[in-house]
Design brief:
By secondary structure, this protein is mainly α. Helix content is about 85%, strand content about 0%. The longest helix is centred in the last third of the chain and has 50 residues. It is rod-shaped.
Length: about 180
């Protein structure tokens, strides 16, 4: 009988350990998702909308004056201007709306993940449904990350184009527009 109690105790211990390890894996998955989305939030917070507005204003000034003052384009100027005009595709108003929408999506997703983590800690979810919830949240985080990466790429494009080409075009405008 003593041996039967030991086997029963060992069996209960194995079941508890396996249950606890499953729960830990789920919480770890949710914590990783929270870290991913919080990193996106930090990058989003690093976007300087004032710097972006300055770049857009400089772009409009430069393209207006290049078109007004420069009669003929060299091959270098033409290709550089075509690269610079890529900024036109990223409209300031749409960028700001998208920026605020992504902020809201990230904030809501962080809340959702924290609620899921709390539900896991309090054992409020059926065990067979946990993987479904985690899969859904992984998809949400992936979709938000893809939207954010496109948004951040647009930001980087505008800022890098402005930083590298603004003074170039200002010099051309200063030399070409003197008599105009």
């Amino acid at each position: 009988m003593d041996k039967l109690k030991r086997i029963r105790l060992l069996l209960i211990l194995v079941v508890l350990i396996s249950f606890y390890s499953c729960e830990s894996k789920n919480e770890l998955a949710v914590n990783n998702l929270i870290l991913q989305i919080e990193n996106q939030k930090k990058k989003l917070d690093s976007i300087d909308l004032n710097k972006l507005e300055t770049a857009f204003n400089a772009f409009h000034y430069n393209t207006k004056n290049i078109n007004r003052c420069v009669d003929s384009f060299s091959l270098e100027l033409g290709s550089t201007l075509n690269y610079y005009k890529g900024i036109k595709k990223i409209k300031p108003g749409e960028f700001n709306v998208k920026h605020h929408a992504i902020e809201l999506k990230i904030s809501n997703q962080i809340n959702q993940l924290e609620w899921l983590r709390n539900d896991l800690k309090m054992d409020l979810l059926p065990i067979d449904s946990i993987s479904i919830y985690i899969t859904l949240e992984e998809r949400n985080v992936t979709n938000i990350s893809m939207d954010f990466n496109r948004h951040y790429y647009d930001y980087q494009y505008v800022i890098k184009s402005h930083d590298s080409l603004d003074s170039y075009f200002k010099n051309i405008i200063a030399n070409s527009c003197n008599g105009v």
